[in-house]
Design goal:
The complex is a heterodimer of chains A (206) and B (522). Chain A has 206 residues and is an all-alpha fold. Chain A has helices at 9-13, 33-37, 57-68, 79-89, 93-104, 120-134, 154-166, 176-185, 191-202. Chain A has nine helices and no strands. In chain A, helix 3 runs antiparallel to helix 5 (93-104) and helix 7 packs antiparallel against helix 9. The radius of gyration of chain A is 19 Å and the shape is globular. Chain B is of the alpha/beta class and 522 residues long. Chain B contains 15 helices and 27 strands. In chain B, the strands form nine sheets. In chain B, strands 14-2-1-18-27 form a five-stranded parallel sheet, covered by helices on one side. A four-stranded mixed sheet of chain B has the order 10-9-22-23. Chain B has a four-stranded mixed sheet with strand order 17-16-15-19, with no helix packed on it. In chain B, helix 10 crosses helix 14 (471-481). Chain B is globular. Chain B starts with 6 loop residues before the first helix and ends with a helix. The relative contact order of chain B is 0.17. Classes of the chains: A mainly alpha (206), B alpha/beta (522). Bound molecules: flavin-adenine dinucleotide.
C-alpha cells in the first residue's frame, strides 16, 4: 500500500527524529490544501473553506504568515480561522513557497453566487468605500495590500466581513491590514449592510 | 441535599423519567434502527459485458462492500482512494502508522506487538448488526467479545464523594437500592397499587425488592451485591458502607452506567481480533488490487452514456470512465469537488453537518487496571476527557493500549488544542481516577476526526433537532439516496438514518446495489 509519492526532501527533513524504521514510514508533504479547499482550490462551502485559486500570491503569503504567527485564527469565535491556524503553524518558509507555486498552477474560475437577500443597489453605495483599496471592479490592488473580491466565494466574504465587524478578525495588534479593514467595515454597520455589499460584489465579474 | 423529596415530587419525577424512556424508544431503538431482519449478501445479476465498468470513490467500508459484491458478478471495479490507506473511519493504529491529522501529523510509537493497537474509529459491533456480521463470517474475520460495561470500572466527578472515583458496582447497587425503596414505599402507601390487581401488586413488589435488594421491611440497608469491604472467601464477608443517596445525587455521571447496556450497545458487542481494520483486510484480500491509493477525486461528471471521474495521482490529472459510480466520499468534502449533480442532490450534500468525534490513547507500561480488578470496560469522568477504555483483549500481558479520551458528541474542545495541551489534559483527567496514571502511560496519540485528512469529520448529522427528522430532512435524505441519472450513487453511513455505524455503511451499499440491479432488470 505504501505508494511512492512526490515527497519533497525539505518536508521529509521536518519530520524530525532519525529512527531506523523511519525509511519504512508513510511519507507525507504539506500539500493538504485541496482536502478542505476543494477541487483545484475552488472553495468548499461544506467545510467553509474559501477559494484559493485566483487569490494573489502576496495575499496568500501574508495570510499564511498571519495564521502561522498567531495573528489570525486566534479569536475563540473565529471558527474557520481556528480550523486553519494549526495547518499553517506547521509550515516552513519553503513549504509556503511550494504551496504558493502549487496554487498558482490551478485554473481560476469565478465562484457562483449563492448569497440571497442582499440588495445590490444599496450595496453599490456601500461599496464606494471599499473601492478605494479593492478597486472599482473589485479586482484588488497589490500596492495597497488589498486582494481581489470579485469571483471569491460570497459566503466566505460574508463570514469574513462579519468577523471583521465583530472583532473576531483584524483585532490583533500586529494585523495592520486587518485593522484598516475593521475601520472600513464599520460603515457596513450590520448583517444587512454586509449582504448588500456582497451581492453588489457578486455583480462584478473578474 | 437541601430538601427532601415528597412522594408527589417523586412520582412526578417518575413521569419525567417515563417520558425520557419513551422518547428514547421512539427516537433510537425503534424509529432509527435500520431493519436488520434479513442479513444478506445481495443477490445480483451477472454484469452485462457492455456495461460493466464501475468506479468506486473512496475505499471506505461501503465502497469496499460494493467492490466485493460487484466483482463477484463480473463487474470491473476501480477504487479511487485519496488517502494512503483503505478503511476511512475504520482505522486501527499500530506501531509506525501515520496519523494524518491536518496540522498535527503523528507517527504511532506503540510497541510492535499484535495486541498493541488502538481502534481510533469504529470499535464495537453489536450482535444485531447482521449484515456486517454476515461479512465477518464470509470473510473469515475472527471476532471476540468487546467489553462495554464492567462493574469494576469507575466514575469520577469532583462534585461527588470528595472527587474520589466511585466504582460502577457501588453506584449501581446503591442507586438501585434507593430507587427500589422509594418505589416500595409508594406502592405500600396504596397510591400506586390502585391500577394493579393483588397478584400484580405482589409481583411488582417482588420485582422492586429484587431490583434493589431490599430487606424484609422493604428498606435498602446496603447489599453484598456491591462486593465485600473485606473477607468473603475464607472469612465472613463484610458488607461495604452505603454511599448516601444525597451524595450520589450530586452527579449525573451515573447515567452513563445505567445507559451502558441499552440501545445500540444493548446487544452483545464484538470486536475484530487484532483490530477493527481486520474487517477491511478481509475485503482487500479480495479487492485490494482494485484500489488506487493517493488518488484524489477531483471532478464527477454524470453523462447520458456513462460517467467521467477526474482524479489526481502523483501530481497528474487522470480520467476514469465508467458506466456506474458508487461514491462514499464524505458529503462535506464532495461539496468541494466539481460535479454536475442536480440542485436538490447538492442541497442534500450541503445540508448534512459533520460530526466532531475525538479520541486519544496511551500505551500503558503495565496493565495497572488489572491490579484494580478491571478487565475491559469503560470508566467515566465529568472532566473533558470523558472516558477511559480498558482493552478487551491481551489480558495479563505486560502492556496494553488504553483509550484516554473519547468525546463522540463534541470533540471541538480537544480539537482546538495543540497536541501537548491535549495530552496534558488527558493526563490530568486520568489521574483523578488512577492516581499514578501520569507515570504509567506513555506514547500518546490523538485523533481529531474533524481534522483528519480526507475525512474532515466523523459521522453525518442530518438532524438539526436530535429528537426528530423534519419533513425537509427526510426529503433531502431520499433525494440523496436516489441515483443521479441511474448511474451515480452516494453511499456510506451518511446515506442512512443511523449514521456512525458500520452496519449502516454496509446497508447503504447493499441498498444501492439492489437498486442498480432492479434498474437493470427493468
Ligand atoms: C470515532 C468513531 C467511532 C466509531 N465507532 C463505531 C463503532 O463503535 N461501531 C461501528 O459500527 N461504527 C463506528 N463508527 C462508524 C464507522 O466507522 C463508519 O460508519 C464507517 O466506517 C463508514 O464507512 P463509509 O463507507 O461511510 O466510508 P468512510 O469511512 O467515511 O470512508 C470514506 C473514504 O473516502 C475517502 N475519500 C475522501 N475524499 C476523497 C477523494 N476526494 N477522493 C477519493 N477518496 C476520498 C476517504 O479517505 C475514506 O477512505 C465510528 C466512527 C468514528 C469516526
Amino acid at each position: 500500500m505504501l505508494k511512492t509519492f512526490m515527497a519533497f526532501s525539505l518536508c521529509m527533513a521536518c519530520i524530525g527524529g532519525t529512527s531506523a524504521a523511519e525509511s519504512e514510514r508513510e511519507p507525507f508533504d504539506d500539500r493538504y490544501c485541496t482536502t478542505c479547499h476543494g477541487t483545484d482550490g475552488r472553495g468548499n462551502e461544506g467545510v467553509q473553506a474559501p477559494r484559493l485559486a485566483g487569490m494573489e500570491p502576496w495575499y496568500l503569503r501574508r495570510q499564511l504568515e498571519n495564521f502561522r504567527g498567531d495573528i489570525r485564527g486566534v479569536h475563540a469565535e473565529d471558527r474557520e480561522g481556528i480550523a486553519m491556524r494549526p495547518m499553517a503553524t506547521k509550515l516552513t518558509d519553503e513549504s509556503i513557497d511550494d504551496i504558493l507555486g502549487w496554487i498558482s498552477s490551478w485554473d481560476y474560475i469565478p465562484a457562483e453566487a449563492t448569497v440571497k437577500g442582499g440588495d445590490p443597489l444599496r450595496g453599490r453605495d456601500l461599496y464606494s468605500g471599499c473601492a478605494v483599496c479593492h478597486g472599482a471592479d473589485a479586482t484588488g490592488n497589490e500596492s495597497l495590500g488589498a486582494p481581489a473580491l470579485a469571483g471569491q466565494n460570497d459566503w466566505y466574504l460574508v463570514t469574513q466581513l462579519k468577523n471583521f465587524l465583530a472583532g473576531y478578525r483584524g483585532a490583533h495588534p500586529n494585523d495592520t491590514y486587518g485593522a484598516q479593514m475593521r475601520t472600513m467595515v464599520s460603515t457596513l454597520r450590520n448583517e444587512a449592510g454586509i449582504l448588500n455589499v456582497v451581492s453588489y460584489i457578486n455583480s462584478l465579474s473578474r | 441535599m437541601s430538601k427532601q423529596v415528597t412522594r408527589r415530587e417523586f412520582l412526578n419525577l417518575l413521569g419525567a423519567a417515563g417520558g425520557t424512556a419513551a422518547a428514547l424508544k421512539a427516537g433510537s431503538a425503534l424509529g432509527l434502527l435500520p431493519h436488520t431482519a434479513q442479513a444478506a449478501t445481495v443477490d445480483l445479476h451477472a454484469a452485462n459485458p457492455a456495461n460493466r465498468k464501475v468506479a468506486i470513490l473512496g475505499a471506505g467500508l461501503s465502497g469496499l462492500t460494493v467492490a466485493y459484491e460487484l466483482s463477484k458478478v463480473g463487474y470491473e471495479c476501480t477504487i479511487l482512494e485519496s488517502s494512503h490507506r483503505p478503511g476511512g473511519r475504520i482505522f486501527t493504529v499500530r506501531h509506525g502508522d501515520l496519523i494524518d491529522e491536518i496540522g498535527n501529523r503523528q507517527y504511532c510509537e506503540f510497541d510492535d506487538e499484535p495486541h498493541m493497537y488502538f481502534n481510533a474509529g469504529a470499535a464495537r459491533i453489536p450482535s444485531t448488526h447482521r449484515n456486517l456480521l454476515a461479512y465477518c463470517k464470509e470473510l473469515k474475520i475472527d471476532l471476540e467479545v468487546f467489553i462495554n460495561e464492567n462493574k469494576t470500572t469507575f466514575m469520577q466527578d469532583s462534585a461527588v464523594n470528595g472527587g474520589k472515583p466511585i466504582r460502577n458496582i457501588d453506584y449501581t447497587t446503591h442507586t438501585r437500592g434507593f430507587l427500589a425503596e422509594l418505589l416500595a414505599k409508594s406502592l405500600s402507601a396504596g397510591e400506586m397499587d390502585e391500577p394493579f390487581t393483588d397478584a400484580e401488586a405482589e409481583t411488582l413488589m417482588s420485582l422492586i425488592r429484587s431490583f434493589g435488594d431490599l430487606n424484609e421491611d422493604n428498606l435498602y440497608k446496603g447489599s453484598l451485591r456491591a462486593g465485600y469491604a473485606s473477607g468473603g472467601f475464607l472469612e465472613h464477608g463484610v458488607q461495604k458502607d452505603i454511599i448516601a443517596m444525597s451524595e450520589l445525587l450530586k452527579t449525573q455521571m451515573g447515567n452513563q452506567f445505567l445507559n451502558a447496556n441499552e440501545g445500540d450497545t444493548g446487544p452483545m458487542l464484538f470486536q475484530a481480533v487484532g483490530g477493527m481494520d481486520k474487517i477491511i483486510e478481509g475485503f482487500t484480500n479480495h479487492v485490494g488490487h482494485q484500489i488506487h491509493y493517493r488518488s484524489m477525486v477531483n471532478a464527477v461528471e454524470v453523462k447520458d452514456d456513462g460517467i467521467d471521474i477526474a482524479y489526481y495521482q502523483d501530481g497528474t490529472r487522470h480520467l476514469l470512465q465508467a458506466d456506474f459510480c458508487f461514491n462514499c466520499i464524505p458529503s462535506h468534502i464532495m461539496t468541494g469537488i466539481t460535479n454536475n449533480f442536480p440542485t436538490q442532490y447538492v442541497d442534500a450534500l450541503k445540508y448534512i453537518r459533520r460530526g466532531t468525534a475525538y479520541k486519544a490513547a496511551f500505551q500503558a507500561k503495565e496493565r495497572f487496571w488489572e491490579k484494580e480488578d478491571i478487565y475491559g470496560g469503560i470508566s467515566w469522568m465529568s472532566s473533558p476527557s470523558k472516558q477511559i477504555w480498558y482493552p478487551s483483549a491481551g489480558m495479563h500481558k505486560q502492556k496494553g493500549i488504553i483509550l484516554g479520551a473519547y468525546d463522540y458528541i463534541d470533540g471541538e474542545l480537544h480539537t482546538a488544542r495543540t497536541q501537548e495541551q491535549r495530552i496534558e489534559a488527558h493526563l490530568t483527567d486520568g489521574e483523578k481516577i488512577h492516581p499514578n496514571y501520569r507515570n504509567q502511560v506513555e506514547k500518546p496519540i490523538t485523533i481529531a476526526w474533524h481534522r483528519m485528512n480526507h475525512m474532515l469529520g466523523c459521522s453525518a448529522r442530518w438532524q438539526r433537532d436530535r429528537n426528530a427528522w423534519t419533513h425537509e430532512e427526510e426529503e433531502l435524505y431520499h433525494a440523496l439516496q436516489q441515483p443521479v441519472n441511474g448511474r451515480h450513487y452516494m453511499i456510506g453511513d451518511q446515506v442512512s438514518m443511523h449514521s456512525a455505524w458500520q452496519e449502516s455503511a454496509v446497508m447503504s451499499a447493499q441498498w444501492a446495489m439492489a437498486d442498480l440491479n432492479q434498474q437493470l432488470l427493468a
